[in-house]
Amino acid sequence: MARKKKKPGLVRITYHDWLTEDSLVKLEGWARDGLTDKQIATEKIGVTERALASWKKDHSSIRSALKRGKEVVDREVENALLKSAKGFYVEESKTIIEIMPDGERKQRIEKTKKYIAPNSTSQIFWLKNRKSEEWRDRRETELSGNLNLANTALEIDEYLNGSDTT
Questions:
Q1: pLDDT tens string 70-83
Q2: For residue 44, how many other CB atoms are within 10 A of its CB?
Q3: What is this structure's pTM?
Q4: Confidence tier at 86 by pLDDT (50, 70, 90)
Q5: Whole-angstrom Cα distance, residue 130 to residue 96?
């Protein structure tokens, strides 16, 4: 079977290039920056998403690097969501410049503590995901018993025709 000839100027990218310590640090960093596997594969490495998925499956070091990076940013977002759901205080600074009667400029920094109220959308999202059995929109109800559709259809027909004997 004949091998395909490589086109001049094209570089074939293999998983070997991404098993070095420096490359694994890059993968972890891109994941920590919030890039998806598809973005890392196509925009950063220059391979298909399928190729990266195969590399992750076959090489634990690649899989681990991406996982470590995602865990960091996932935890940060989780903490921000919780903070938003509960409400929090933030310190704001304002620089005030006063011009005195003699023309001298005085600068002072005024700090205020501001309360950011809880965000109800964050609360709903948190509860639906963390306590889904209690907070999900859809409820499943199980009914038991018999339903005789033949009699029900007959009763509806009699009612509509005005011959309801009940």
A1: 998 889 999 999 99
A2: 15
A3: 0.54
A4: very high
A5: 45
